Amino acid sequence: MRMPALLALTAISLSACASTQSAGLMENGYNPGALAVAAIDRGDWGRAEELLMQMNGVGEDDPARLINLGKVYMETGRPGMALTAWRRALGSDRHLMVETIGGQWVSTEDLARKALARHDRSLRSAAR
Predict the structure, then answer these.
(1) What does the alpha-carbon distance between residue 78 and residue 85 come to, in Å, rounded to a whole number?
(2) Can you name the residues that pair with 97 across neighbouring β-strands?
(3) What is the pLDDT along the chain (128 residues), one digit of tens a residue?
């Protein structure tokens, strides 16, 4: 199965963040601000959540949106909601190739899997 390539930034930190100036360019294929890239890049979690919840032309189950929403939830102390968002992204039937903040091209399936693995482990460790 061939995944469509889509220039869309996701916020899982696989490497250094892109500048806000380049963030808008990385949402090609989406309405400007739909993935809250600039807000996430500057750590404006409230604005990022607001933008992601508006779903400005983005489907509720869009895996790139869910990955970014999970990032916002994790950064704002809601790990359960973050894990739910990432599980929904992983369960998507339409994974995309996206560009991360660090400029790497990765499938949304891989991003969701890595986010879940990283945070499931840390939650289990904290519960012990």
Answers:
(1) 11
(2) 5, 107
(3) 434 434 344 444 432 222 223 444 457 678 888 999 889 989 999 999 999 999 999 999 999 999 999 999 999 999 999 999 999 999 999 998 888 777 888 899 999 999 999 887 665 666 66
Tell how strand 105-107 and strand 5-10 pair up: unpaired
State how far the Cα of 11 lies from the Cα of 125, in Å rounded to an integer. Answer: 24
DSSP 45-98: HHHHHHHHHHTTT--TT-HHHHHHHHHHHHHTT-HHHHHHHHHHHHT-SS--EE
Burial class, 57, CB count within 10 angstroms (exposed 0-12 / middle 13-18 / buried 19+): exposed
Q: Enter the pTM of the model.
A: 0.77
Query: Span 5-127: which CATH code?
Result: 1.25.40.10
Amino acid at 88: R
Domain segments of the chain as ranges: 5-127
Task: Report the distance separating Cα 70 and Cα 82, nearest Å.
Answer: 4
